[in-house]
TrEMBL record:
UniProt keyword annotation of Nucleotidyltransferase present: no
Family from the record: Belongs to the HIBADH-related family. NP60 subfamily.
SUPFAM superfamilies in the record: 6-phosphogluconate dehydrogenase C-terminal domain-like, NAD(P)-binding Rossmann-fold domains
This protein's UniProt keywords: Oxidoreductase
Ranges of residues in domain 6-phosphogluconate dehydrogenase NADP-binding: 3-152
Source species of the chain: Lepraria neglecta
Catalytic residues as annotated in Swiss-Prot or TrEMBL: 173
Lineage, broadest ranks: Eukaryota, Fungi, Dikarya, Ascomycota, Pezizomycotina
Protein name: 6-phosphogluconate dehydrogenase NADP-binding domain-containing protein
GO molecular function, one term: NADP binding
Length: 317
């Protein structure tokens, strides 16, 4: 097996694959920045690093990819489709639009290979402990081949779309991202409300931690009130999130769907990018709501000596 893409999600998933899956041979890793793959390989063991995509794909029967964005997915598969890939199985976990997934699936199948879109839900801390929710879609026989690597390895549960076209997994992922963004928006507003009224974010967090079905709220709210949204490596950079959210809104418009709460979250993402920069974490929504409420963007002081907010608060959308 080979795994393409050693970002935060790729690192946690491959760690669990090596530790928990029954691999006869070392896992092959490939990443655009080879140094990251080499450092990760050294840390997880039972793995090797390929110098090129061609080398990686040639050596494996199952090729699992989780790449940074749609552009990276498209470019990588353009290279892959120039190779002889007959008999191989491609398992794609990157977040892309449904029509892109379906196009790649068709091209891979026409080249004599199998394709499963296998989107995942869960941020890196959940991925690290193998608690992702996996959504595989594609031919049932192909999905069956990859199930041994899911529950008990990288996942706690599977939403099985066997027999559905591959793009259905991407569509469900996009719908899930709407839920995630609106959850972040809710957490940001609740914490600002608690601080402004004198209740305090600590007390609000106690409620969130114990609220029924509040796991997602707990995760995102903690990232906000602990200052992780600017003090730690971004879960997702805001500029990349804005690119995807614009595509989601276009898809909603095409289908005459109103996503007002999501639109508010998207507007706050624009505020994050404007005030803090394109590489800030998407949980910086909290900072945007804080500024909208007359508070400073950074809740625990400036980042690296920066002033709180580059330009003051402005609506961009």
């Amino acid at each position: 097996m080979v795994f393409l893409g050693i970002g935060l999600m790729g690192q946690t998933m491959t760690k669990n694959i090596v530790a928990k899956a029954d691999l006869e041979k070392p896992l092959i890793l490939w990443n655009r920045t080879r140094k990251r793959a080499e450092e990760h390989s050294a840390s997880i063991g039972h793995s090797t690093v390929a110098a090129t995509v061609e080398e990686a794909v040639t050596k494996a029967d199952i090729i699992w990819s989780c790449l940074q964005d749609q552009e990276a997915v498209t470019e990588t598969f353009e290279e892959i489709l120039e190779m002889d890939i007959r008999g191989k199985l491609f398992l794609e976990s990157s977040t892309v639009l449904p029509d892109v997934t379906n196009r790649i699936a068709k091209q891979v199948e026409e080249a004599g290979a199998e394709f499963v879109a296998m989107l995942v839900f869960g941020e890196p801390s959940l991925a690290n402990i193998g608690k992702l929710i996996c959504v595989p879609a594609g031919p049932a026989a192909s999905v069956s081949r990859i199930k041994p690597y899911l529950v008990g390895v990288v996942a706690q549960a599977v939403v099985d779309l066997s027999g559905e076209e591959a793009g259905k997994a991407s569509l469900l992922k996009i719908i899930g991202n709407v839920l995630i963004m609106t959850t972040m928006e809710t957490c940001a507003e609740i914490n600002v409300f608690a601080e402004k009224t004198g209740l305090g974010v600590e007390n609000a967090q106690k409620l969130i931690d114990n609220f029924p079905h509040a796991a997602a709220h707990t995760i995102y709210s903690s990232k906000m009130v602990n200052g992780d949204y600017y003090q730690k490596e971004p879960m997702v950079e805001v500029t990349k999130a804005r690119h995807l959210t614009s595509q989601v809104l276009d898809l909603a418009k095409e289908n005459n769907v109103s996503l007002k709460s999501y639109q508010v979250a998207v507007e706050h993402l624009a505020d994050v990018e404007y005030n803090a920069g394109p590489k800030e974490d998407i949980c910086g929504i909290y900072g945007a709501v804080r500024m909208e409420s007359g508070m400073e963007f950074y809740n625990k002081g400036p980042k690296n000596g920066m002033a709180n907010g580059k330009h003051g608060f402005e609506k961009l959308l």
